[in-house]
Structure formats: C-alpha cells, structure tokens
Specification:
This protein is of the alpha/beta class. 57% of the residues lie in helices and 12% in strands. It contains eight helices and five strands, in the order βαβααβααβααβα. Bound molecules: thymidine-5'-diphosphate (TYD). Thymidine-5'-diphosphate binds next to α4.
Amino acid sequence: MMRGRFIVLDGVEGAGKSTQMPRIADWIRKRHGEPVTTREPGGTPLAEQIRALTLADHDEPLPPMAELLMMFAARSVHLENLVAPALDRGQWVLCDRFVDSSYAYQGAGQGGRDEPIAWLEAQIVAARQPDLVFIFDLPVERVMERVRQRQAMDRFDRADTGFLQRVRDAYLRRAAADSSRYCVIDGAQPVDVVSRVIIEHLEARFA
Ligand code: TYD
C-alpha cells in the first residue's frame, strides 16, 4: 500500500484557506480516494479540547511558552491519533494549518525565539513533514479588513498591524527558503483563479 500524501494549507487569516479546502478535497477524492480533512490546533476530540482551551479568553494571562506547548500538545495528539495512521493506511490528509503557524504566530508574531519551536518540531513532527504546503498570502491591510468583517473573534484575531506584518513575513520567509515543499498562493486573486492555480500545482506535483 502506497503511503498517503500530507497536504497543508497555511498562511494569514482571511486569505481564502477555508474556501479552497473543499475544492482541494474534491480533487483528491477523484484521484486518490476519500481524504482526511482536518485542522490545527485540533482535529481529534482531545486535540479539539486543547484548541478550545488555547484559543479561549482567560481571566489570567497565558504565558507565551505555555501557548506554544499547547499548540504542540494538540499537534502531537493529532499526528499520532489521526494524521500518521491515515497516511500509513494510504489515505491522503488535507490539513488547515500546521507547524508554519507556530513559527509565524508564536515565533515571529509574538516575538518568540525559533529555537524552542524547532526543537519541538524535531521531537513531535520529526519525519512526518507535509509533502506540500500552500501558503495563502494577502497584504496586511486586506487581512485586517477580513478579520474585522468576521463575526466571531477569538483571542488570536485581536491583532495589530505590526503583529500581522511579522506573521505574514514569517510565512513568506519560510516559503522562500524551501521552494520544493512550499507554494505561495496570492489570496487577492478571484476564488476560481486560486483553485485553478492550486489544482495545476497538485497535478504537476503528484501526476
Ligand atoms: P483557525 O481557526 O484556522 O484561524 P483562521 O480561521 O483565522 O485561519 O486557527 C485558529 C488560530 O490559531 C489562528 O489565529 C492561528 C492560531 N495558531 C497558532 O497561533 N499557532 C499554531 O501552531 C496553529 C496551528 C494555529
């Protein structure tokens, strides 16, 4: 049985990830069978509980290192209990956000160092790296607009321009450093154009 492929959609909020998820899932379904579609933080009942705890407002501060550890606690559960077993069965996995979010938000955004993140990544993700990561990109002003339009604001949505700029730059830096695994998607393009670009990329990569 051939191992499944692990595809990640990541990037700044409001750049169209959620709209593209079902379209990419359709493409996978037609060619490679039913995919597992999932998200981080979360994806399993236990990891979703960690997500709720991590994103909620609390009456006391959540120290940045605690937040980082909770992201990776959820990731560990998700990888062990859902992602790795699916890939081993030969199923494809399509995941909304992964490790790059930790580098972008807990690292660049909040001014945390990359070293602890890289260490956690080495322990928890290890060789289970995605085969392909689409980074959805959008200028920060557009991100702010879309975040403001959204109804539910979680703790992470109340960010300032400087924060979002650092997050966006981190994604672009990471994508530029490894063009074999990353593909930057211009989220300002019409939805159908974005879908076409993504599908062309998938066809070329996994023909
Ligand atoms: P999500 O619901 O996917 O946000 P959005 O719909 O805005 O894309 O993710 C929730 C938040 O979690 C998002 O603001 C990014 C944050 N996050 C981190 O800070 N670190 C991480 O490692 C992950 C996976 C997510």
